[in-house]
Structure formats: structure tokens, C-alpha cells
Write a structure and sequence with these properties.
single chain; alpha+beta; eight-stranded antiparallel β-sheet; 17 helices; 36 strands
């Protein structure tokens, strides 16, 4: 592969709602560009970017996968990302290395809840956006209805640069509104697209749409606006130049029509990407922070000091750790000496590769803006910046906290040691995964599907089989009133005894306050060296809970008095006394259980809204608003996590698979009395 200069690069993250046709579109673009020899299909399990076994089995993307091809002398880098809520963090983490978001919107279902979320990812990163109305060949597909839904959601600047020729099974091509030419095919056989005159029945509609596009392009550039007023129109060359400037400035978001499954509209989309999507310099200078954390900018230039941002880590049991990156500034090649500006480590990069799905190809160098891969880098993880000593560091986007936990146990005793090591490797490539030991090994993630995929990968990649126990809701306990408590530990045996005495005041904190500890001891009633032991005793005791075995949160403990013995007092004695004071305090301060409340956004077809609302009410959900978007309704609500653990299959059943939802942690609320009583009784029966 030849070396590409920065101006010859286009980087796009292919994002959108689940099942909107992203991977099929990527496969069609690869085929249309001649990068692959056949039109792959998700159903056949042979696409370039869905190559993991669990992706093939489930028929959905589970992780971000890069690929690339040449189109008319320009290297187009695509990062195909998941659209399901459980895995949408992959799209968020990929966005900083993309200059453009290619947002897939299904022509049947329209704007989904995750369409808006990926739009927000692009906006947060200042990335341009191109909308691809996909699946135009499907029954009930409608470009007009989908466009209306998009403009209602994203504004009138989401504007067509193409119009479809035909609809549903009759979709055969597009009208390019800039050149006013009809482009058909290329079709499943891969033969070149044909250019011709605009069909007579679309002439009037196309002229009106072109005038609207021309006016919007002119509005984004003063020179073009003067030209438009004086001449009454713009040339095709002026429209293309103005469109590229407007797209980079996020003042216009082009909309195209395409179907990946039939390979129609793909070459027209490729031409648009090359002509209108910004190159890596189009977003302005790279913005990061200096060594002391101050904001700093640097031009995206191959001659600048090298800095590389790692946007994804892959834990391969055979190839080792793979680090997918973008060259933010400068140029990198094999054996480049780079420092990890995030952790401070230093090392050589080894070989530099470009990636096509699971295939890697060695290259001599990569210039600023290009995407690549390092193999077997030590101590380098997702979000790290590698660079020269005067490089700048880039900040990784925040990732969501896990929302669901399962207890896991190995099927074989011999696998107990291997589980933690394997999970640590998977944690390197999946930042939303968390595991911890709390009486049992807890595996936490963004949803049940996420956890099931992790379990599958444990077996496939590392040969570890585990059993999943029912989802565990992370309840918490808290106090409701202030109380004073006393803890005294005294034990006399042969030789030195044990003695510690402490008086503690506990008081509630605001929700989310977790735990605070303070000392108000005066006069040396308790020597200073024993105060940390009291805090540690409280910390350990609160983690074990009081009512039902859940951590106690949102309270402050202040030790204000006590006694000690010059010989018999020790740190362990004061830890025990603190735990006794904790139990005494909890018996007085009216403890209660808290449950996690989730913020939920559910997008459903209008005809299913009533059924979904009824089911949500039965789950103790509180509807906060509804927003109609085209033929769908977005329901915003809050609901207890305990009631939402089995929601996914229920929503699928209620909507015939056409509904989608996203939920994330919001806050903790008290558990209703009858449910709290049941939880406490269940805990007591297990411990009797």
C-alpha cells in the first residue's frame, strides 16, 4: 500500500441505531471500491468488519472494527461501530479519531434512540456528519418520511444532496442534486454505476431540492452568498467547494439514499465522501493538554512532533495486545521511539500496520490523520497517548458505569485462577466491564446481552467456562437520622490483652455522598495513631451492610471520644471497637434500603405506545415525557433497575422487534416498604 498524505485521507465512524444497516453498508462500500471481490452479507457471516464468532452468531456488531480502501486516489478509513445500547460505548470511543460521522438511518424505522446518541457523540467531538438513509429497498421504506423525522430531530440543516429513484424493491439509483445527473446501480453484480439524465417524473422535484440546497450552501459562505444574489445560482464546482466548507463547519449535514444489500447508491456516496467530507485538517488543529494539564493545540501536520491516540485495545490470546490508533500529529513508522504521555512509560513501537477487519498489513509509515495498529505494546491501553517528549496528550471520553451485575462461578475448579486473568485481559479491551469479589465474583456490565457476550468470549478466547447466576441488583443501605454510638472491645488473655473504646456520631449525607470520616477527639482520649484504624473498621463494617448485606452509603461518621490502654490497645483492637460502634449506630439511626433508579429512553412505533406505557407502569416506572418523531414516539422515564432486568425481551415482544431503548444509572431512591421487608427477610433466611 502506498503512503498517503494527510490531505488524501478521509476518516469516518459508521454509526447509528442497531439494525440500521451499518455493517451491510460498509460491506457494500468495500465492494463498490474494489477492496473485496464479493458483496458480503451479515446473514452469511462473511462481512469484513463483523468477524468475531459471537458477532457472526448473533448477526450484530459488538465492537468497533476499522477497514479502509482507495477511492479515486483518496484513502477512506471507516470504523464500523455497534448500534445496540449495550455496546454503544464503542462508537463513543471511536469518535475522537473520526473527522466525520457517517450516520445510518433506516428508511423503514427512521430515527432511533441511539441515532440521537451517536449524533451527540459527533457533536461533542466537533465531527462533521453525513446521513445515509439505508435499506431503501425494504418494504415500507420511505425517504420522505425518514427525512422528515431527521429534520424534526436534527434541524433543517440535515438536507438532501441526493434524491432516490424509485422506492422499496424498485429503488434503482439516485439523482445527484449538484450535477443534476441520475446515477443508477452499481447493483449486486458490482458493475460500474451508470450516469444519465434525471427521470422526467423527478425533474421538478429535483430542481426544487437543488435550489434549496444551493441556497443553504450560499448561506454558509459570504463570497458564495454574494455570487448567489448577483447571478441567481451557483455552478456545480462552487456548490461542491461550498458544501465541503459547510460540512466541515457543521452548518450542513448532507443526506443520501442507499441500500447496501443491493449495492445501490454506493458509488454516489463514495464520491460525496471524497468531495465533501473533511480531511484530517478540516476540523482545525488537534486539541489536547500539556504535561501540566493546560489546554494546547497543534496543527495536524506530518512534520509536527509525533503524537498517537489509542482508541481501542484488542486482547488477542495469540497475537497479544493490539493497539488501534490514530496519528494525531506528525509521522510514525516501525521502531519509532515514543513515550506514553498518559502513564509515563517509554518504548519502541515495533511494526506499524493498517487493519482491514481481522487482517493486518505492515506499512512503512503513517502520516498525520491516518489510522493504524501497533502490536504487543506493553502498558498501553485504550485512551492512552503515545508521543515524543514534546507531544501533547489527548483526553479519553468518559465511559458509562456498569448498570447490571451477575455472580459468576467456574464450571471447573481448575479454572478459578484463570478467571481473573482472563477477565483482566477482556477489561483491557472493554472499559465498561467491571469485576470484583464480594463474597462471590461479580461481573458487571451495561446490560444482560453485554454480560452474555463476555461469558462467550471467556470460553472462546481463554478456554474458561462459567455459570451465570441471576442478575444482582446493587442495592445500598443508608441511615435517616443522626445518632451517637459506642463500641468497646476488651479481651484479657495470658500476657497482653486487647482494649479499645470509641464513641462515634453518625449523620446522614445527601444522596450520592457515599461515606465521610472525621475525628473530633480532643485531649488525647484516643492517640492519633489509632484514628486510621477506627476509620478502617468503619469502612470494612459498612461494606458488609446491616439490614440485608449491602454497603451502607451516604453517611458521615465522626469519632469524638474514647479510651485506650497504654499496653493493651492496638490498631486491631480499635478496628474491632469501630465495627461494634457501627452496629450500635445502625440499630439507632433508622436504616433503610436504597435501590438504583435508571433513566430510560424508549423509542417505539406509535401504535405500540399504549402497551409500552402500561408495561412501564407495571414496573414502577415514572414517565417524564413523550416526544413524537415521525412515526415513532420517544418515551423518557425513570424506573428501578430491579424492574428493568428483563425488559429487553418484553419490549421486543410488545413491538415486534421494532422498539429500542437505552438506560443508564440516574440515582438511588428508598425501596418501598413491602419490597424492603422481603429483601431483608430473604437475607436473614440465607444467614440463619
Amino acid at each position: 500500500m502506498r503512503d498517503y498524505q494527510t490531505a488524501e485521507l478521509r476518516n469516518l465512524a459508521v454509526v447509528g441505531h442497531g439494525t440500521s444497516g451499518k455493517t451491510t453498508l460498509v460491506s457494500a462500500l468495500l465492494y463498490a471500491a474494489g477492496a473485496v471481490t464479493r458483496l458480503a452479507r451479515v446473514e452469511d457471516g462473511n462481512t469484513t468488519t463483523d468477524f468475531e464468532e459471537d458477532e457472526i452468531e448473533r448477526g450484530i456488531s459488538l465492537s468497533a472494527a476499522p477497514t479502509h480502501f482507495d477511492w479515486n486516489g483518496v484513502k477512506v478509513n471507516l470504523v464500523d461501530t455497534p448500534g445496540y445500547s449495550n455496546f454503544l460505548t464503542e462508537a463513543k470511543l471511536a469518535m475522537p479519531v473520526a473527522d466525520t460521522a457517517l450516520i445510518s438511518v433506516c428508511a423503514v424505522d427512521g430515527v432511533g434512540v441511539n441515532t440521537e446518541r451517536v449524533w451527540n457523540f459527533a457533536e461533542e467531538n466537533g465531527a462533521a456528519a453525513i446521513f445515509a438513509v439505508t435499506r431503501m429497498d425494504r418494504d415500507r421504506a420511505s425517504f420522505e418520511r425518514t427525512l422528515s423525522s431527521m429534520q424534526e430531530t436534527f434541524g433543517r440543516t440535515a438536507i438532501p444532496v441526493q434524491l432516490p429513484i424509485g422506492s422499496e424493491s424498485g429503488f434503482s439509483g439516485v439523482v445527484d442534486l449538484i450535477t443534476m445527473k441520475a446515477i443508477s446501480g452499481p447493483g449486486p453484480d458490482g458493475r460500474g454505476a451508470k450516469t444519465g439524465d434525471v427521470p422526467a417524473e423527478l425533474q421538478e422535484q429535483a430542481e426544487a431540492a437543488r435550489n434549496e440546497l444551493m441556497e443553504m450552501i450560499a448561506e454558509s459562505d459570504e463570497e458564495l452568498l454574494d455570487r448567489f444574489f448577483s447571478e441567481g445560482e451557483l455552478t456545480s464546482e462552487e456548490m461542491i467547494r461550498g458544501l465541503r466548507t459547510a460540512v466541515a463547519a457543521r452548518s450542513i449535514f448532507p443526506v443520501v439514499a442507499v441500500t447496501g444489500a443491493q449495492n445501490v447508491g454506493t458509488t454516489a456516496l463514495l464520491d460525496l465522501i471524497v468531495a465533501a467530507a473533511p480531511d484530517p485538517t478540516g476540523r482545525g488543529p488537534a486539541r489536547g493538554v500539556s504535561g501540566d494539564g493546560e489546554p494546547v493545540e497543534r496543527e495536524v501536520d506530518g512534520g509536527a512532533p509525533a503524537s498517537v491516540y489509542v482508541y481501542k485495545t484488542i486482547a488477542d490470546p495469540f497475537a497479544g495486545r493490539l493497539s488501534l490508533f490514530r496519528v494525531m500529529t506528525g509521522t510514525v513508522g516501525p521502531e519509532t521511539q515514543l513515550k506514553n504521555l498518559t502513564t509515563g512509560g517509554t518504548g519502541r513501537t515495533g511494526g506499524v500496520h493498517v487493519v482491514n477487519g481481522k487482517a493486518m498489513e505492515a506499512v512503512s509509515k503513517l502520516s498525520a490523520g491516518d489510522l493504524g495498529c501497533f502490536a504487543k505494546l506493553r502498558d498501553t491501553f485504550t485512551g492512552d497517548t503515545l508521543g515524543t517528549a514534546d507531544g501533547i496528550r489527548f483526553v479519553r471520553p468518559e465511559v458509562p458505569h456498569p448498570v447490571i451485575s451477575f455472580a459468576i462461578e467456574p464450571k471447573s475448579r481448575g479454572d478459578e485462577e484463570k478467571i481473573s486473568q482472563a477477565l483482566q485481559r477482556l477489561r483491557e479491551e472493554d472499559l465498561t466491564l467491571k469485576f470484583e469479589r464480594d463474597q462471590e465474583l461479580l461481573l458487571s456490565g451495561t446490560g444482560q446481552l453485554h454480560i452474555e457476550v463476555v461469558v462467550s468470549r471467556l470460553k472462546r478466547k481463554f478456554g474458561v467456562e462459567v455459570d451465570l447466576k441471576p442478575p444482582r441488583v446493587p442495592y445500598r443501605e443508608t441511615i435517616t437520622v443522626t445518632a451517637e454510638a459506642h463500641g468497646r472491645h476488651k479481651k484479657q488473655t495470658g500476657g497482653h490483652g486487647q482494649f479499645a473504646d470509641c464513641h462515634v456520631r453518625v449523620e446522614p449525607l445527601e444522596r450520592g455522598g457515599d461515606f465521610e470520616f472525621a475525628s473530633a477527639v480532643v485531649g488525647g482520649a484516643i492517640p492519633r495513631q489509632f484514628i486510621p484504624a477506627i476509620e478502617k473498621g468503619f469502612q470494612e463494617a459498612r461494606q458488609k451492610g446491616y439490614l440485608a448485606g449491602y454497603p451502607v452509603v451516604d453517611f458521615k461518621a465522626t469519632v469524638f471520644d474514647g479510651k485506650f490502654h497504654t499496653v493493651d490497645s492496638s490498631e486491631i483492637a480499635f478496628k474491632i471497637a469501630a465495627s461494634l460502634a457501627f452496629k450500635d449506630a445502625m440499630s439507632k439511626c433508622r436504616p433503610t434500603l436504597l435501590e438504583p433508579i435508571m433513566s430510560v429512553v424508549i423509542t417505539v412505533p406509535d401504535e405500540n405506545t399504549g402497551d409500552v406505557l402500561g408495561d412501564l407502569n407495571s414496573r414502577r416506572g415514572r414517565t417524564q415525557g413523550m416526544d413524537r418523531k415521525g412515526s415513532q414516539t420517544a418515551i423518557t422515564a425513570q424506573a428501578p433497575m430491579a424492574e428493568m432486568l428483563t425488559y429487553e425481551p418484553t419490549l421486543t415482544s410488545l413491538t415486534g422487534g421494532r422498539g429500542g431503548f437505552h438506560m443508564e444509572f440516574s440515582h438511588y431512591d428508598p425501596v418501598p416498604g413491602n419490597l424492603a421487608k422481603a429483601l431483608i427477610e430473604a437475607y436473614q433466611s440465607r444467614n440463619d
